[in-house]
Amino acid sequence: MEGDFALPDGGVSAAPEVLALARVVARLRAEVVDLEGLASMTAVLERAKGVLMAREGVTPDAAYQLLLDRAAQRRHTLLEQCWITLGRTRNSPVTPPSQAPVRTVPATPPEQHSSPGTSRYAVADGGRPAEHRTLLSRLGQGLAGTRTPNEIAQLLQSVLADAEDVDAVMIYTVATAGNLKLVGHAGIGEAMAEQWSHIPPLSGVAAMEAIAARAAVWLEDPELDAARYLLIGDPPDRWPSRAWLPVPGNGAVTAVVGFFRTLRGPFDARTRTLFRRAVRLCGGLLHEDRGPYGHVPLHADVDAIQTIFNALSGPAVLLTPLRSQTGEVEDYRIDAASPESLDLAGRRGKELVGRRVLENYPTVAGTALWEGYLDTLTMGTVYEGEPFVYEEVTAGVPQQSVYSVRATKLRERLVVTWIRHDTSERETRRLDDLQRLGNLGWANWNLATDTITWSDQVYVIFDRDPTLGPVRLEELPGQLLAEDLPRLGAAVQRLLDDGAAIDQHFRITSAHGVRHLRIVAEAQRDADGSPLEVHGFFQDLTALRGAELALRESERANLVQRGMLKAERALGAVLQDTLLPIPEQSLELAGLCVDVAYLPADSGLNVGGDWYSAIELPDKSALFVVGDVAGHGLAAVGTMAQLRFTAKGMTITGSPLPDVLGRLNALLLHTASDTHSATATLVMGRYQPWNHRLTWARAGHLPPLLIRQGEASFLPQPEGTLLGAAFDSTYGQAVTDLLPGDHLLLYTDGLVEEPGEDIEVGLARLADRVVRLVREGRRGMLAKTLARLRPGNRDDICVLEVHVPDEP
Asked: Are 496 and 116 spatial neighbours (Cβ–Cβ below 8 Å)?
């Protein structure tokens, strides 16, 4: 839980839809499930999915969704829609196997010319050449009529023989004791199949290595491969190049497909991609005993529950407990989900089916929610938990959500519904404000699907009508100035070839003239190191470039005009409000009651650098920080943001408090320039609830005020000068045990300072005022009350009060 968020109240009650679900499932209890029939239904479903994957070029989950949607549109059952889909491909011919002589790949492939912004990987791995789409379509049509791994092997060999010189195919599965069992083959002959029908778990077997590493093994040099691996075949050089690809699945890899080519030389990127897609297309049938999501086949009652869930208006999931050999619940699998079910990663509805609870929410194990699930399974009682905060780090960014959860038992499963009280809309507005204020927008290129996505702000930056869609990489050179084209083209080529991150400036022409832009991007790679996805952002630097030109051509005094200063202050105020959006809040951390108040200076535009943080650390201790950056304006707000996020990040990683202060001091000194240098004071404390101990350190900050048994005293201060003052500054720390009933105040100087008055007078006044408030019974809102008692404040005020509750 972080100090930037408040905890809303809320609850959840049994929905009428859930009651209807219970009545329907109760009727199902009397029915006997025909497991053999269900296995047949699952096989039909997998074949229909394979046909749609090949025909439509979609993922397995997307193919499953297409079947459901088309069945709903035509008012068919899912099984009827599967048979209709298969019936349209039954008469599609499959080309018989053909033999091809051994050929050799040229030692040096012909150079591929591409315009800047286009990579050979975008075509080879990300694109789908027409001939490959045709091959995959033939493969998908053929899979509709296959029933055994042997038929799959024959189909693979026949489809890939002419185009990729595939002379033979072998399919192995993992048998008992780790042995490999040959379950399908084509092009090798029965004698060889008998000889290699079983392979013991030996080292030096490429198929074994592919399964163990869950990665393809490419054998492209017969001499070197023979020295390293036991090569299948007699003679071994019958096939100069081979490939072993594991069959993907949600669990352990249990099957591998081998391709044997008469073509000598390495596999190019297009061939590797084609083989992977072909194996993935066959994966459903090779794993069809495990069901469409890689687990045991769906039972009839789960199908019925999913049908009811499809009509629900709120979030709901059906959880199946996964038990260890000793019978203990290790996790829960989502077997059905309503369309409104949404997790923190953005997966919705049926995208959650087959996933595990700890996969989506890894830190929920051992919590009150987890124990509530177990009690419901054991005793059948309904679990209704209090609202709780869940924090997850996604893409390196902490995200918090508040949930109220309800769980009921249904046979040996759980039906779980919840209400999410989070701040997603506020976070979306903040992101939009950040993009608008920073004049930047995010962009994403999916090389596997060859799709580009832009945020709204990118269209503003490029002065482009959103109805035209994003600018594709091959279209980008047409908007660039000619002199910037080679440099940007080379950068994008490096990004797509090597995956190296880029930070490049370039210029474009628009209806409003030349614009100076910046692109920052990085590539996400697959298991072989080839780029799969590129994400980054564009930033409009036109205004900044204009300011730099003005700085060169005019004196500094001409730049500090009233209008520019006002705009800077207004921007600083918006940024400060974005960073500290809650002026007053109360929360609980590590068993402590925390009250926070923040009041800006009365001048309004003269924004300062006061800030606070109150967060829970990974070890369940709490971190409290109050800081004050010297000066006002945009520079102070920027320095404040630097210190705030750096201090939180370092403390979360476990750095001692003196080390954190030392590195913050070095940060300010090393980022100082001839025109700007910053100093700041800071006090930070780490509270351990298991021994009620507060370890704290300071950097030139005013001492914390402790109120104990109606008496006020300032804590003795450890060594520590203000940040940004000297390179050789050292910082100590002190330890204080907090007792029940204690109040501890952390504050900035705006709470006590008066012009022309000695600071000691202000501190004494603060101590007397706090003692009086406590005795008057107003100790529940000390921070807010103290801040409001400072009318006409000339400086920002930040107060953080920590209260140790009285023992019951």
From this structure: no
- The full DSSP string for 461-497 is HTT--GGG-PPPTTTGGGGB-GGGHHHHHHHHHHHHH
- C-alpha span between 53 and 284 (Å, rounded): 11
Provide the CA 96 distance to its chain's centre, in angstroms: 46
Distance in angstroms (rounded) separating the CA atoms of residues 178 and 267 = 29
Please enumerate in sequence order all residues whose Cβ is within 8 A of that of 470, keeping only pairs 6 or more positions apart, or say none.
Answer: 443, 452, 453, 454, 458
Contact between residue 416 and residue 319 where contact means Cβ atoms under 8 Å apart:
yes
Q: Among 655, 673, 654, which Cα is nearest to 663's?
A: 655
Q: Give the C-alpha separation, 65 to 13, whole Å.
A: 30
pLDDT in tens, 171-213: 999 876 678 899 999 999 888 898 888 888 888 899 999 998 8
What is the bridge-based pairing of β-strands 451-454 and 502-510? Answer: unpaired
Strand partners, 683: 626, 698
What is the C-alpha to C-alpha distance for residues 531 and 498, in angstroms, rounded to an integer?
8
How far apart are the C-alpha atoms of 611 and 643, rounded to whole Å?
9
Average pLDDT, the chain: 78
13-72 per-position pLDDT tens digit: 445 554 555 444 444 443 333 333 444 456 667 777 777 777 777 777 788 888 888 888
Cut 0.85: pTM above it: no
Cα 370 from Cα 365, distance rounded (Å): 6
Q: Which residues of 268-284 are buried (b: 16+ CB within 10 A; e: fewer)?
A: ebbbbbbbbbbbbbbbb
